[in-house]
Each structure stands twice: as structure tokens, then as C-alpha cells.
Amino acid sequence: MVSDSTNGAGDHYDRMADLKAFDETKEGVKGLVDAGITKVPRIFIHSLDPLDQKAAQQIKEPHQLHDDELKAKLEVPIIDLKGMEEEDEEWRREIVKAIGEASESWGFFQLVNHGVPESVLEELSQELRKFNEEPKEVKMKHYTRDPMAKVRYTSNFDLFQSPAANWRDTLYCNMGPHPPKDEEIPEACRESVLKYSDEVKRLGSVLFELISESLGLNKNYLQETDCAKSHVFLGHYYPACPEPELTMGTTKHSDADFLTILLQDQIGGLQVIYNDQWVDVPPIPNALVVNVGDLLQLMSNDRFKSVEHRVLANRRGPRISLACFFTAFPLTKPFGPIKEILSEENPAIYREVTVKEIISYYASKGLDGNSPLSRFLL
């Protein structure tokens, strides 16, 4: 039985025993909620983030804007791809410029009129929720920590490495370049996952062209280096939390990929760091959130930013999201700063690294709030 302590009282707390007990249920956080838990178990309790501590300690002078007023003036860029198929050169230059500026300053942007049908997005969200709310006997068949499994359901991939567990369960699907057999994907969401996989792969190709051009490269540059050859889905289910102030939906982290496309529902909770403060990424109907990954920051030699982000726990729920991570194949292929953008004034600051190396480092440390890129500096 997982401990229900929130205050850490007692001299003989065995964290590993609690972690193992939670994992062995194979029911995830949803199982805790279904059991009627009213307090957050100790394994989920997080320390206060330094930026939250800083905000809490700031003394507001009468002439200063309040934090919430300041945040209202900050908005993650919104990029409209309407007209994408008309091949208008002026339109393309404007979009390339907007994506470049957003990738340099925020590392995040929201994409509207992206071409993925609304029906596909709605169906995917509904079916991911349906899978997570199936009887435990159905979900447990997919529950595994086997890193070689192309489809796996689990709670906290870094459960035994991270300082504290996150209040979420996840369905992992490795969709390319060699997708799983259809029957390996849970029946409840199989059709929508396959449809969305085709759509997001198409959209990813468009984005990699636009990003290549924003770096001053041939539009096919990034795709020809196999940056988008593989894509992986993580469908997250964040149940309503009885004490959201004590835990996190997802800890502060950056993404160990080239590019991420995220579908989030309307509950909200996603935040990014901008100007040394947390800024909300409010849900926009039918929009997709796009962010730069660590490998793209490395390849751009720090021109583009892989920004740390997080998801807050919430009394409302469940929150549904699906992140698509674009990465390379094979995992042993090395990537370094793009030679075409280097110069005497802009020398390489990173060494070459393989996808396998950066993912292995992530797996060893878990989501501990620290970017892995400093490990690969020259």
C-alpha cells in the first residue's frame, strides 16, 4: 500500500518501498484516484521551484504591476499557417521569419490553421481518455517498463530516478520509422493514433522545411539529415489532484528531441520559462503547441532555444495531452552544430552527440529540472 503521508513524519520512511508498491499495482495515478485517495502520497511531493520561490519572496511596490498583470502582457507567439498550400513566396518569407523569431526568443509557439482536421484532434483526445478510463485489467496488459517495447503504458518513466513522481500516467507509442503492429496499440485509441500519426508526420515535414529556411539553409536540410525520420507519441493523462499545490503534473524539463508538436485539451496547466518567470500557454481551440528540442538547440549552436516547461497539477481533470517527439534514426547517428551556420564569430560550442547518448542521459537522471545540454559543451 502506498503511503498516504504528506508531512514526511516518521524516522523510517522507505521511499523505494513506496515506489515499488505503487509501480506493482500497474494502475498508475488513475488507480490512486479511483481508490478515493484524499491526500497526495509522499512519493509525489515536490520541492518548491526556485522561480516560484523568487516570485513568492518579491515585495510588490505600489507603483509596480502585479505579477498577474505582467504575465498578461506576455504571450507565447501564435503563428497562422493559413494559406500554406498556396505557395505564395511573400507569405512563406513572413512565416519563416515568424518561426525563426519565435524559436530564438521563446522556443515555443502555438500553431493555428495547421491543416490537421479538427475531427482528428477531437477523436484522439476522446479516445486517449477512453483508454485511460478502461477497466484496470485492460490497461494492465500494456503496463511495462521495457524500454524496447514500441507501445507501453506506464506511470512516470523515471519513477525510480526522479526526486519526486509526477501526477500523470502515459501511453508511449513509437510510431516511426518502423511503427508497431496495429494490434499492439490499445484498441480504444488505435484508430485515432494511426490517423494522427499520418497527419502529424506531414505537418512535421512542413515545419522542418520552414525551420531550415529560418536558419538560412536549404528547405530540405534538416530532413535530409534525418531529424524527422522517427516520431514518438506520449499520450499523457493527468487525473484531478486532491492537493495540486504539493505536486506537479510534469516537472520542469526541456525535450530531448529536435522538435515537439503538442496537442493539449482545454484544461490548461502548461507553462514555459520566459524572462526568468513562468508564463502560461493557454489552450487555443484546435491549435497545436510547437517547441524546439535540445538537439535542435545544439544543431543551431544556441540560436534556437530548447526552453524548460512544466505542467501544473490541477483539481480539475482529467487533463489530456499528446506530445509528438521528432527525432533521428538510427539513434547512433551523431549530430553537432551545423557547419553552414558556424564562423569565426560563431564557433561551435557543443560537441557531436548521438540521440542514443542524450536519451540515455535523460533516462539516468530523470526529470530533475536540469537541462542535459551543459553535459555536451566543448
From TrEMBL:
Sorted alphabetically, which keywords does the UniProt record give?
A: Coiled coil, Iron, Metal-binding, Oxidoreductase
UniProt cross-references to InterPro entries, sorted A to Z: DIOX_N, IPNS-like_FE2OG_OXY, IPNS-like_sf, Oxoglu/Fe-dep_dioxygenase_dom
Q: Which residues form the Fe2OG dioxygenase domain?
A: 229-328
Report the SUPFAM superfamilies cross-referenced here.
Answer: Clavaminate synthase-like
Name the domain of life. Answer: Eukaryota
Q: Which residues form a coiled coil?
A: 81-141
Q: Which PROSITE patterns match?
A: FE2OG_OXY
Spell out the molecular function terms from Gene Ontology: dioxygenase activity; metal ion binding
Note the Pfam families from the entry.
2OG-FeII_Oxy, DIOX_N
Record has Cytoplasm as a keyword: no
Q: What family is it from? A: Belongs to the iron/ascorbate-dependent oxidoreductase family.
Q: What is this protein called in UniProt?
A: Fe2OG dioxygenase domain-containing protein
* Species whose genome carries this gene: Stephania yunnanensis
